[in-house]
Every structure is written in C-alpha cells, then in structure tokens.
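Anyone? Bumping this.
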Amino acid sequence: MLAAVSFLGELLSFAAENAGRLARLSYEHVAITLWTLAIALPVAVSLGVVISYYERAATVVLWVAGVLMTIPAIAFFGVLVPVLGIGNPPTIAALVAYAQLPVIRNTYIGLTQADDAAIEAGTGLGMTRLERLRRVRLPVALPVVMAGIRNAVVILVGLAAIGAFIGAGGLGDFIFYGISAGDTAMIVVTTVALSALALAFDYAFGVIEQWLRLRNGEEVDRAVLTRTLAAVHARLS
Amino acid sequence: MIRFDNVHKRYSDGTHAVDGLDFEVEEGTTTVLVGPSGCGKTTTMKLVNRLEEPTDGTVYYDGTDVEALEATELRRRIGYVIQDIGLFDHMTVGENVATVPELKGWDADRTDERVDELLDLMGLPPGEYRERHPSDLSGGQRQRVGVARALAAGPDVMLMDEPFGALDPITREELQDEFIDIQREIDTTILFVTHDINEALKMGDRIAIMRDGKLVQYDTPTALLDEPKTKFVEEFVGPDRTLKRLRVLRVEEVMRPEVPDEYADIVDAFQGNDAVVADGGEIVPVAPTDSAQVALSRCIQAGVEALPVVEDSTVVGVVTESAIRNRQSEGA
Ligand SMILES: Nc1ncnc2c1ncn2[C@@H]1O[C@H](COP(=O)(O)OP(=O)(O)O)[C@@H](O)[C@H]1O
Ligand SMILES: [Mg+2]
C-alpha cells in the first residue's frame, strides 16, 4: 500500500518536473501524426475511389495494403534510412504505409453504400460519373471514410513512438530513454501521455464522424461534444 | 414529341424486352404506358433518356434521334421519376429538389426560389420541409419530393415510372388527384408508366397498352373502354366498363355552360347558402375536372337531377343526370 502510494508520488513528481519536455515531445508526436495523415489520406482515399470502379484491382490493392501492415517498422527503417536519412522522413514514410489499409478499405466500402436507386436517379437526372461521385457516392461514404481515418490515427499515434529509434523525436524519446536508464516512472508517465493522445485523437475524429452522419440525416447517439457542436451550429445558422 | 420507330431492345441475356415499338407521344399530352409487370414499360421509358440503348430502331426526341444528342444534356431536359423514387437520403429535401438546377448551373437565388415554388406546388410548405431529410418523411411525401425534383428545371418532358406504385390506396388517390391539377398547371408532355389500368384511365389523355414488349392498343381512355381491340385488352380493362367510363368522363365534357331556367332553383339554393337541404341532403357542387361518376353520385345523394358546376367559386354551368346517361348510352 505504502509502496503504491510512493510510486504514484514518484510518477506525479516526474510529470511535474518534466511537464515542459513532455509537452514538447507530445507536440512533435502530434506533428508526425498530422504530417503522416496529410500525405496518407489523399493517397488512400484516391486509391479507394479508383478500386471502387475497378473491382478486379480492388482485391490486389487491399491485399498489398494488408501486407504493408505486417511489415515490422524496423524492416521499413532498414530500407528507408539509407534513402531518406534519419529523423522524420523515414518515420513518416513508414507510417504512411501503415495508414493505407484502414483508409482504403473504408473508402471502398463507403463508396458501395449509396443506394442503387439513388445512383440510377442521379444518372437519370443527368449527372456525369464525376458528378455522381461528388454529389452522391462520396458524401454517403464520408462518415465511413472518417471511421477508417479514426482507426488509422489511433494506430499511427502508437506506432509513431518507434520513430524515436531513428531520431524522429516524439514521446518515443522518453520511452527509449526510460528503458535504457531503467527509469520506470519515466516509461509509465510517457505511456500514459501517449494513450491520452491516442484517445484525444480518437474522440476528435469520432466527433467529426458523427457530425458527418448527422449532416447526412442519419440517426446517431450523439457524444457530448457533438451535441455541443450541433447546438453551436444551430445558433450560428 | 417522342417517337418510337420500330424500336427493339434485347438485353445481353437474350430477354426481348421491347419488341418492335411504333408510336408517338404527342406534345402536351399525358400518355400512359400500361401493361402487366415485366412487359417492358420501364425499358421503354429508359430508351427515351438513354439509360438504355435500342438494339434496333430509333427513338426520336422532338424530331432528333436521341443517339445524336448528348446523354447528360438530354437527361437534364427530361424530368425523371424512377420506380423506386431514389431520393438522395444524405441531402435535405431542398437539396434534392435543387439537383437539376444545380447541374445546369443556375445561380443560387434562382434555384432557391424555384425549390420553394415547387415545394409549395407539391403541398410541402418550404418553411417546414426544405431542411428536413427524406428519411423523416412519409411515403407519400417522399414521392412528392421525387416529383418536385423531376420538375425542378422546368423540363419539356416528364418520364414517370410507377410514381405512385408503392403507396397505400388512399395516399395514391390523393396524389393522383393532386397531380392531375399540377399537370394542368405545368403543361408539359408526360410519359407515365403504371401497371394499374384504373390509374391509366384516370391520368391519361392517351393510353398505350403493352404486352410482351409489343404495343397492343393505343387510344384515348374512352375509345379504349368503348372498343377494346383484342381479348387481352378487354380482359385487362376489366369487366365493369360502364362504371369506368363514368370515371373517365369529365364533367366539362357533358356540362351545359349556362343555367337553364328549370335548374335555376338548384343553383339559387346552392348560392343562397352553402348547406342547402334538398330532398335527400346537401347540394355539393362539382368542378369541371371532376368525373361524371362524382357528379352522378352527388346527384343521387342530394336527390336532385342537376348540380351547379363551380370553378374558382363561380358557377360556370350545370351538369344533369340525364346528360350523363345519354353520353353513356352513346358509348355503349
Ligand atoms: N438490365 C436488364 N437485363 C436483363 N433483363 C432485363 C433488364 N431489365 C429488365 N429486364 C427484363 O426485361 C423485361 C421487361 O422489363 P421491364 O422493362 O422492367 O418491365 P416492366 O417495367 O413493364 O415491369 C423483363 O422480363 C425483365 O426481367
Ligand atoms: Mg417497371
């Protein structure tokens, strides 16, 4: 009991003493994650759109994206570091590969969800293929795509810690350092920060997903923040 | 306006859905394509806006082979209500109706104005319905949105594929009646598909009866009832032709555009106050567009021989029971 209390005290004092550095590492971590998304999303969503038109390519693309996910980060680094050097670039490149499967898959599934009758009506009213994509299929798919992005982001936040291994910074720095120094408090506090970050991303993207569903007229159990946003939106409009 | 010239459609699986169709939908009419399920009605309709291509023959739109027209351009000029409505559930009612104007690049103000006008026309007050999603609406309301969406850009031609097919009988009657009024207002050429002969008789100026991809008779409702050309048509039209003729006969076709002395008291009685008790009951006037059946049943109910015909709250003539009877015996 006493030991537990004193360990908790140790964690708190570590967190208090290193708040500034933790904040900086969290910031780096978030930056890596956002850069990854900025590159990965256009690629994955485009691929999802393309394979929704070419069923036969779909199997291959999804299979490749699946295989990418099974490649260990260390193996990626082995190939990427000689080309891209150390630090952020190889880390982000590897993370971009990991983000593909959930986003491509959800884009593909989302795009098949538009009602056949709605597609036919769209055609009959004079929409071109591109207009059908933009006005009917994509808006219907968007919440599903967002669920895939949310899924990817949680994976990315966890995986980004590995980047510290090749000097990319982020919360991984403290974890690696804690391991080599045998500093349990450091490892635990950093891990908690990492989880909190993942949960925050998850929640934020969850809210966006809900908002998209609401906009599409779907029934959803609103999270607190979504309710707040909806209220604000109602007041503004 | 739309002419079918020896049109065939054979699907890739060998189904001969349309088998040598030759007829013309005349400008300004409502032409109803009617026939049993699977006889090729939907296919025929899709040949007009190029959702299907004929395997033989030619479809002309306003004198031009549709194959020579750009498909999306053509479709934006033709209002289309598909069999399953196919509303865009992710959009609001207003956005659904705005679809074709937006595709055509109308400016936002003009589109908004048009959307409100159409929602009003379809009995969906814009203030209440514009921002709602189709999933909040009843079947009848969804169907109205489908019709409004098709009408939005003021099409020259409307294609309506069993637009009231999925509705309960009461809602269907309601929408049919409303649509007959709307039809007068918009004055476009309409090709209307149904499998229900009563709906066809009610809605159509001309009726094309189809069977197995072929046209078996193309006539006015009255002619169809008077002279069914084949056994199939006779059976399809059904046994109670006299009653049906009463339904297709409009008051304006048998009314007298003046008020003869002998019926002056009926009209006076009606005008004196709106709930006059005749022998039987209240005299309820008819509109020129009401059917002879309605007029006859109101005559019987009120126990009178004639009824005032009222349009825009003024009496425009009378319709008599005997005039209806005479017209009936001419036809039979
Ligand atoms: N895309 C298609 N491929 C093959 N057969 C079809 C297709 N569409 C319709 N058919 C067939 O063509 C015939 C006519 O269909 P349709 O035009 O839908 O009839 P209706 O609208 O009168 O019920 C039916 O036998 C139907 O099964
Ligand atoms: Mg059909």
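Late reply, but here is one note on the structure posted above: The mean pLDDT of chain A is 91.
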